[in-house]
Amino acid sequence: MEPPGGHVNKLALAAVLLAAPLAARADVGLRVGLGADIANHAGGSTHVITDNWPLEGQVMLSYWIPTSLLAIDLEVAEGFYLKAPDCAPASCGTRLGTVLRPGIRLSPPILPIYIRAAVPINVESPSPYDVGRGTYGLRLGAGLTFPLVLFKIYIEADADFPLGGGTLAPSAFSNWDLWLNGGLDFRF
């Protein structure tokens, strides 16, 4: 005779044993870094990093599927200028705004490279700085990782293209931003 709840306990144990190999191989990642908009083109005008020093702090949470080939990412970035652009005193500021970037990363086994695609969504932007950027867009990039004992160092190059909602974005490739990013990548 089975003890009370014995059947339920056996099912719970079987579920845990079946899920354990997948859970043991799944990785959660945290990535922190800094990005620099090294060149951008909007409204017929091209700017380089030394014009205003546009930078952004970045935090990304990742879930790596069991094979560690594909990661599902969510990045939050806060952009700012080190040198505010020349503008009327009422509209000057140093913030570029907050961006969410859901995306994916594909990393082949053994090689320290990856490719990345994301959809930048401008959550909020100070009004004078949303001129060339769309409300949402496409980010394509590639990166290198340098594994150390507790974390990896990453360097990534990205190209951003507006897909919708921008005031000076007549087509997806008429405006663009080129970013260089770097930082630390942890897996738990």
- Quaternary state of the chains: single chain
Mean pLDDT: 81
Estimated helix fraction = 10-25%
Shape: elongated
Q: Work out the count of structural domains.
A: 1
Which fold name corresponds to the CATH topology? Porin
Rounded to the nearest angstrom, the distance between the terminal CA atoms is: 43 Å
**Broad CATH class:** Mainly Beta
Order of helices and strands: HEEHEEEEEEEE
Named at the architecture level, the CATH assignment is: Beta Barrel
Strand arrangement in the largest pleated sheet: 1-3-4-5-6-8-9-10
Rg to the nearest angstrom?
21 Å
Structural class call reads mainly beta
Most strands sheet: 8 strands, antiparallel, barrel
- Strand tally: 10
Please give the count of helices. Answer: 2
> What ranges have pLDDT less than 50 throughout 5 or more consecutive residues?
127-132
What percentage of amino acids are in beta strands?
over 45%
Describe this structure in words.
The protein is 13% helix and 54% strand. Strand 3 (54-64) and strand 4 (70-81) form a beta hairpin. The protein has a single domain (27-187), classed as Porin (Beta Barrel). The protein has helices at 6-25, 49-52, and strands at residues 27-42, 45-48, 54-64, 70-81, 95-106, 113-118, 121-124, 136-147, 152-164, 176-187. The chain starts with 5 loop residues before the first helix and ends with a strand. It is elongated and about 70 Å long. It is mainly beta and 188 residues long. The chain has an 8-stranded antiparallel beta barrel with strand order 1-3-4-5-6-8-9-10. Mean pLDDT is 81; it is low at 127-132. The chain has 2 helices and 10 strands; from the N terminus they run αββαββββββββ.
